[in-house]
Amino acid sequence: MDITQLQTFLRVCEYGSFTKAGEQSFISGTAVMKQINRLETELNLKLFVRTPTGVKLTPQGKKFQPYVQQLLDLLNTAIEETRQVRTDDKRIIKLGTSLLHPADPFMTLWTRVAPMMTNFQIRLVQLQEDLNSSNREYAMLGRSSDLIVGTFDNTTLKQSFDAIQLGTYHFGIAIRSDNPLAQLTTISFSDLAGQKILMVPTGISEKNDLVRHQLLAAVPDIQIIDTPGRYDINTFNKTVEENIAMITLTPWKNIHPNLVTVPLKTDTTVLYGLLSTKFPGKKTADFLHDFVQINRDDPH
């Protein structure tokens, strides 16, 4: 028995389905089922009744659930208190950063509010991809990092994330510097007629879906090429190697030296902010509470 199995057990309790619990953990329903089967075998307990529509707790499962919750809460408390001792009472917040999720927008704010939050310290950590997850870096929240700066909308928040808005990003078109589109100061939808353009697939971002709808309505002959999921560095390389266009956002304009980004004429923007898991733990929850309070009292 390990902590991951217990965390998975609680997610299945919450969502009543291996599949839905898997979506929250960014793994397959089959992987969740295997974890639960192994847990039941190791403990010699029957925790769930499987039904065609999901799962239900057995009497043993109902008895087991509150103890698991208490155990994990106690473990989190132990980790938090131990970390405070190790860092001279500073509460460390791990802020994930990467090419696609730069921490700069938050760190500018942190410079201003840090003197008012002296019991916290920010530690930047390099985000690693979870290759088993369709959301990759987002899946590392609550694992290698407490927070990341990222985009969000209702689709994102329906998953396992909460967000505190910091600002808005604008859409642009990334193209190779020798592409004729690179000579424009702004790009309209009509400028993209007959072009191939890379975008994330539908269902990942409401705002990307909206821009896709606007594109297809304005230029039906545009050829949209879906990426396998959220962007990674390979997406930018593909744009360069195939000399095609790519939908991009404000913070990505300098990722690839052979690409230039031209603003896209659209009123659609994307919110970005501090992302956390829905259950981030007391330390991170306290940090977010204090950060919001300070910015509410002193927005400048």
UniProtKB/TrEMBL annotation:
Gene3D superfamilies: 3.40.190.290, Winged helix-like DNA-binding domain superfamily/Winged helix DNA-binding domain. The keyword Magnesium does not apply. GO terms for cellular component: protein-DNA complex. Residues 1-58 form the HTH lysR-type domain. It comes from the Bacteria. The keyword Transcription regulation applies. Pfam families: HTH_1. One of its GO terms (molecular function) is DNA binding. Keywords: DNA-binding, Transcription, Transcription regulation. Transmembrane segments: none annotated. Belongs to the LysR transcriptional regulatory family. This is LysR family transcriptional regulator [Lactobacillus paraplantarum]. It comes from Lactiplantibacillus mudanjiangensis.
